[in-house]
Design brief:
By secondary structure, this protein is mainly alpha-helical. Among the domains are: about 315-400; about 400-535. The protein is about 75% helix and about 0% strand. It has helices at about 1-10, 15-35, 65-85, 90-105, 115-125, 130-135, 165-180, 185-190, 190-195, 200-215, 220-240, 245-265, 270-280, 285-300, 300-310, 320-335, 345-360, 365-370, 375, 380-400, 400-415, 420-430, 440-480, 480-535, 540-575, 590-630, 640-650, and strands at about 10-15, 160. It has a two-stranded antiparallel sheet with strand order 1-2. It is globular.
């Protein structure tokens, strides 16, 4: 029957499945570590959560960032282990569970392609272990699912099959079909949506040139483009479902996603997933058969035989395999304690180490390592260690932990949870190190907000004191005892007012001021370096855009520091003139103390003028750098346009 032949009697190649596993699960791992990890702070923000599927709303607990970090880290690690061939099916299942939990648990993850990736991982979980393991074992021959090895001697010995492999093709086809079907409405088919999506000036200029060259109106061009997109997606659906169309699809479908990337749509790594999947699944069988046969010849060559002979000398026993798993787990623990999540390193490392041991020492994995001892007896523990190193390296190199903490701190700041905001900004700065760009200015802003809160509370107390005055005047004639109690309460509130005033002044003029000063000190070396790099590469538009951004950042910090210096100068002058003698040294005469404060106040005013001049210079430098950048860049992207708009809106 056609149905059985379509689902159960197909074939694919070992190298194709290996490539699919590397592409899909490799991308999943690094996607989770370098992008999704940074979004973890969104989960459970404000004690609010909305799930992706309605029935989960009543049963799913509130997610919280530390748990999401753990899930993302573990799921990505499982995905990379599966890509490397370590306990493949088990790690695919674990990665699928973790990935799906992160997506379905909250609409904080709003990217719909994560649902599609979760479906692909779910389908891959149905491919049996024996298929995956035979894939990684050259020379093992064909692996039919329901047919003995020698049942079909005419079939190429490198081919294998399972219905879940066909389902992957069908699922991708359904995705393309549904994407095309949802566009069959007037808003898309008239070209209106295409017109709105191509809002970048350079893209529109290029489309206008095409319109003139083809002698058609821009509106008609957008309409034709919209129709062609729909037809292309319908064709892509059939290319995946109908095997005879796949080679033709290889020449057409990947370019659609290349075009999406060129348009600059913010869809994270979806285009990379689809380009990789298209290249692997649509490429012709002859290519993969050639790769399989080349691998087979290499495996059976004299060099391959000598290597296997050497590896076969390695003693093998269940105890040794478990010992290797334990050793690899220990190394993974040591490596992953370097994850840049202060306070959580040991917990994350322990979970990853335990997962490594389970992946290597479970009965199924041990059995396959025994069967394929020459290639997997030592390789699997080594690959697990490599996966841990890649995980730590990618997270450290991507600044994702810094983004995680600064985003979490920003959320606390917006919700006026200022102590938590300071704590998490400090964690972000700790991740960056003492010399890295950090959120020092933001901490100063939070302390300024705390000072304003103290002032507001002091004003509330003053209003209460005024009302108490009125009540005391009334009670003196009616109830003198009550009046004395109110006078004591009034005196206590006056003390509270004085304490809050001192706290506000300390926070604003001492703590926040020092953070503003540190922020400028930490930025200036980077600004000097950016200026030197830009001057050494006169035609590099990217460097000049970066320089314009740094100059604008410096201008903002100079202005803020200038304001803080003026405020501190006024505070010192006021405290000296109000005769508030607060010297740390009781032996210091009052006149000397007052003179020192007035001198410091005057110096701060001069420094504030200097900072204001620096701000003006930085803004002019930003505008100059922007002119050079625009002169060397014909088509600025979204980030460059953001810098252009920021510089244009900046006030002198």
């Amino acid at each position: 029957m056609i149905w059985n032949r379509y689902w159960f009697n197909g074939d694919t190649q070992r190298s194709r499945l290996v490539a699919l596993r590397w592409v899909l699960f490799g991308l999943v791992a690094f996607d989770m570590w370098t992008i999704m990890l940074g979004h973890s702070s969104r989960y459970g923000a404000g004690l609010l959560n909305v799930v992706q599927i309605d029935f989960l709303q009543d049963v799913a607990p509130l997610p919280f960032p530390s748990l999401i970090v753990l899930l993302v880290s573990l799921a990505g690690f499982c995905a990379l282990l599966a890509a490397f061939g370590v306990w493949i099916r088990g790690n695919i299942i674990l990665a699928c569970i973790g990935y799906s939990l992160v997506y379905f648990w909250s609409q904080a993850d709003s990217y719909q392609h994560h649902y599609f990736v979760a479906l692909l991982m779910f389908i891959c979980a149905f491919v049996p272990s024996r298929v995956w393991q035979k894939v990684d074992s050259p020379g093992s021959g064909r692996v039919p699912v329901d047919v003995p090895d020698e049942a079909d001697a005419s079939t190429d010995r490198n081919t294998l099959w399972h219905w879940a492999i066909q389902l992957i093709y069908v699922q991708v086809g359904i995705m393309y079909f549904w994407t095309a079907w949802t566009k069959l409405d007037p808003t898309w088919m008239t070209g209106l949506t295409m017109d709105q999506l191509t809002s970048e000036p350079c893209i529109r200029d290029q489309l206008m040139e095409v319109s003139k060259a083809q002698d058609i109106s821009p509106a008609l061009l957008y309409q034709y483009s919209a129709i062609m997109v729909v037809l292309g997606e319908f064709f892509a659906a059939f290319a995946f479902i109908v095997p005879r169309l796949r080679v033709l699809g290889l020449l057409i479908v990947p370019w659609f996603h290349v075009g999406v990337e060129m348009l600059g749509f913010d869809i994270e790594w979806f285009s990379y997933y689809m380009i990789g999947v298209n290249l692997v699944l649509l490429s012709p069988n002859l290519l993969w058969l050639w790769i399989d046969r080349a691998a087979e010849r290499s495996y059976r060559s004299s060099i391959g035989q000598r290597v296997r002979a050497i590896l076969s000398l390695w003693p093998d026993s269940a105890a040794l395999r478990v010992a290797l798993a334990g050793a690899a787990s220990g190394v993974v623990y040591v490596i992953t304690t370097q994850l840049p999540f202060p306070g959580w390193e040991e917990s994350l490392a322990g979970a990853l180490s335990g997962l490594t041991f389970v992946s290597l020492a479970n009965p199924i994995s041990l059995q396959w390592r025994r069967l394929f001892r020459p290639t997997q007896g030592l390789l699997s523990p080594s690959l697990a260690v490599l996966a841990a190193w890649l995980m730590v390296s990618s997270i450290q190199a991507s600044d994702i932990s810094f983004d995680f903490y600064r985003n979490w701190a920003g959320d606390f700041k917006r919700r006026q949870k200022l102590d938590q905001a300071i704590e998490h900004y400090e964690l972000a700065n700790r991740v960056k190190g003492p010399n890295g760009p950090a959120r020092v200015m933001n901490i100063g802003d939070v302390y300024t907000l705390k000072a304003k809160r103290e002032k507001r509370e002091a004003q509330i107390l003053r209003n209460q004191v005024v009302r108490l005055n009125e009540e005391i005047s009334r009670q003196r004639a009616l109830n003198p005892l009550k009046a004395r109690e109110l006078e004591e309460l009034q005196e206590q509130k006056r003390e509270d007012i004085a304490r809050k005033r001192r706290a506000a002044e300390h926070l604003e003029h001492e703590v926040a001021y020092l953070y503003y000063l540190e922020a400028v000190d930490r930025l200036e070396p980077y600004l000097t370096e950016a200026r030197a790099e830009a001057s050494s590469a006169q035609t590099d538009a990217g460097l000049y855009f970066d320089l314009a951004s740094d100059e604008l950042r410096a201008q903002s910090r100079y202005r803020k520091l200038a304001g803080a210096m003026r405020n501190r100068s006024a505070y010192l002058t006021r405290s000296a003139n109000e005769n508030t003698y607060q010297s740390d040294s009781p032996a210091k005469p009052y006149d000397m103390w007052k003179a020192e404060r007035l001198k410091e106040a005057a110096e701060l005013l001069e420094s504030a003028k200097t900072m204001a001049e620096n701000a003006s210079v930085a803004l002019n430098s930003a505008r100059s750098a922007l002119e050079k950048a625009q002169g060397n860049e014909a088509c600025p992207g979204p980030d460059e346009r953001r810098i252009i708009n920021q510089v244009r809106r900046a006030r002198g």
